[in-house]
Amino acid sequence: MTLDKMTFLEVLNQAQDKDFLAEVAKFTLERLMDYEVTTQTGAPYYVREEDRKTYRNGYRERAFDTRLGTLNLEIP
Fold first, then answer.
1. DSSP 3-state assignment of 70?
2. Which of 1, 3, 23, 49 could form a disulfide with 43 if both were Cys (CB 3.0 to 4.6 A apart)?
């Protein structure tokens, strides 16, 4: 993820007025997808390495329906 993404503590602080579990689920799912892409590409976002297998091409937004409601996720 980019450096301007929220940290977990920022999500907790902002979730006071929103649905807490939905925000935590969104945060967790986006971090898991980012980790999966990092392992597949061989390098984190914005890092250039010779061992890199492929390149990233940004994010796209997708709606993910859960019991917590619809989560708008950024899919890498």
1. strand
2. 49
| 72 three-state secondary structure | strand
End-to-end CA distance of the chain: 9
* Residue with the two structure tokens 């390495």: 49
Structure tokens at 48: 């250039």
CA distance 64 to 67: 10
- Per-residue model confidence (pLDDT) at position 60: 92
Confidence of residue 1 (pLDDT cuts 50, 70, 90): very low
- At 57 the pLDDT is 79
